């Protein structure tokens, strides 16, 4: 009675190992470089970033100039005048921090722009990978660009070109 049970258990374990899971890789950097909309979105974000950074720097320079002026004239001022100038400097520095947060903070304009411009591209890539993985039976698809623990991977499991083809970008 035990031998048939052990034999069935052994056969079950062997059949499970025979159905090894399939893995695939994508190179997200490679895929994104081959999508023109990504380059366009990147340029828009870079231009906005430069413009916003210039605004922040201009305001920071104003705060710095106010501080330097205060430093050079502080000894000649009354206590009340010093307090007024210090308050003005603190207010200006707060404006700089608020503007920096408005543009570059986690909920700022740059994050919103990135979500608006890059989100649809990333969603399309995810959908294409999901379809390919489902069709070809891949259990796991890893991004080679972000997987730092991958030392070597066979080019035969890289499906980046298939993803680009699914998105309509032949390479």
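^ Assign residues to that structure.
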């Amino acid at each position: 009675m035990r031998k048939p049970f052990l034999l069935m258990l052994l056969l079950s374990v062997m059949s499970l190992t025979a159905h090894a899971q399939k893995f695939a890789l994508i190179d997200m950097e490679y895929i994104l470089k081959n999508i023109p909309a990504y380059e366009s979105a990147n340029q828009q974000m870079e231009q906005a970033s430069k413009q916003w950074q210039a605004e922040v720097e201009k305001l920071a320079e104003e705060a710095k100039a106010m501080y330097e002026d205060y430093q050079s004239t502080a000894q000649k001022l009354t206590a009340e005048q010093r307090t007024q100038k210090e308050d003005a400097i603190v207010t200006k520095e707060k404006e700089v921090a608020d503007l920096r947060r408005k543009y570059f903070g986690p909920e700022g304009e740059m994050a919103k722009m990135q979500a608006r411009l890059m989100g649809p591209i990333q969603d399309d890539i995810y959908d294409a990978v999901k379809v390919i993985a489902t069709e070809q039976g891949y259990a796991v698809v890893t991004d080679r660009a972000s997987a730092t623990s991958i030392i070597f991977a066979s080019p035969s499991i890289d499906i980046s070109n298939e993803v680009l083809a699914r998105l309509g970008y032949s390479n």
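Residues 116 and 159 are 27 Å apart (CA to CA).
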